[in-house]
């Protein structure tokens, strides 16, 4: 099986994916050095700063095998 990478760089999508990751595994937040707001979302200015320094999420898409 092959996988294709999708580099996510948009702040809204990164915030959404980080929320999914930390909801599924709260300990994940320990490895993300971006502060969170009271509502649980990641601080917008800190996230923008991280993105400006190259922070990205790589989302992998698995290709379906040929029948």
What is the topological layout?
Layout: E1 3-8, H1 11-24, H2 44-52, E2 57-62
Antiparallel strand pairs: 1-2
Brief description of this entry?
By secondary structure, this protein is an alpha+beta fold.
Structure, described:
This protein is of the alpha+beta class. It has one domain. The chain contains 2 helices and 2 strands. The radius of gyration is 14 Å and the shape is elongated. The mean pLDDT is 94.
Rough shape?
A: elongated
The chain-level mean pLDDT equals 94
The beta-strand count equals 2
Helix/strand-derived category reads alpha+beta
Biggest sheet, open or closed, and with what strands and sense?
Answer: 2 strands, antiparallel
Whole-number total of structural domains: 1
Strand content: 15-25%
Radius of gyration: 14 Å
Q: State the distance separating the first and last CA atoms.
A: 12 Å
Count of alpha and pi helical runs: 2
Question: Can you give keywords for this protein?
Answer:
18% strand; single chain; two-stranded antiparallel sheet; 67 residues; elongated; alpha+beta
């Amino acid at each position: 099986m092959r996988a294709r990478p999708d580099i996510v760089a948009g702040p809204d999508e990164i915030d959404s994916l980080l929320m999914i990751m930390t909801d599924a595994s709260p300990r994940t937040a320990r490895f993300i050095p971006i502060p969170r707001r009271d509502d649980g979302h990641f601080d917008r200015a800190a996230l923008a700063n991280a993105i400006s320094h190259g922070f990205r999420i790589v989302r992998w898409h698995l290709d379906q095998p040929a029948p």
